[in-house]
Amino acid sequence: MRECSRCGGHVQRSFRYCPWCASPQRLKLVEFFRPHALIAGDRAKALRVSRYLGPRKEQRHVRFSVWSETEERAEAEAAVSLDEHEAERLAYFLRHPERNPAASRGLRSIFRDLPTYFAQAPRD
Ligand SMILES: [Zn+2]
């Protein structure tokens, strides 16, 4: 048991959120996801999703990384972080792939809008 830093309630160490006030008990949550069993080229890979829960907006994001495993080691092949809005959009897409096709964006559109996106991003 430990104390919640927000409300002081007793929380089991394995809990990610305080059962009394719902405050996150960790600033980073990590889950690994297995590859599709029928896609042979992905068998030695895994998807790692890290969710950062910092108190400030610029600290909160979701980082996706593709890991591959050899006999010697595991290493990240690529990674990208999404802000909360894009992570929510991804979650919506996964939950409801049949909905909102007008809002889907192509890769060219994403890259074309990046300068504006970064110019509007909050600074420290
Ligand atoms: Zn609490």
What's the tally of helices? 2
Kindly state the number of beta strands: 6
Give the termini separation.
35 Å
SSE series: EEEEEEHH
Helix content: 10-25%
Q: Major sheet: size, sense and barrel closure?
A: 4 strands, antiparallel
Low-confidence stretches: none
Fold and architecture overview:
The chain is α+β, with helices and mostly antiparallel strands. It folds into two domains: 1-26; 34-120, no CATH class. The chain is built from two helices and six strands, in the order E-E-E-E-E-E-H-H. It has helices at residues 84-95, 107-120, and strands at 2-3, 10-11, 28-33, 45-52, 61-69, 74-83. The structure holds zinc ion (ZN). Zinc ion (ZN) binds at residues 4, 6-7, 9, 18, 20-21, 23.
Set out the fold topology.
Elements: E1 2-3, E2 10-11, E3 28-33, E4 45-52, E5 61-69, E6 74-83, H1 84-95, H2 107-120
Antiparallel strand pairs: 1-2, 3-4, 4-5, 5-6
The structure holds zinc ion (ZN).
Please summarize what this structure is.
With 124 residues, the protein is an alpha+beta fold. 21% of the residues lie in helices and 30% in strands.
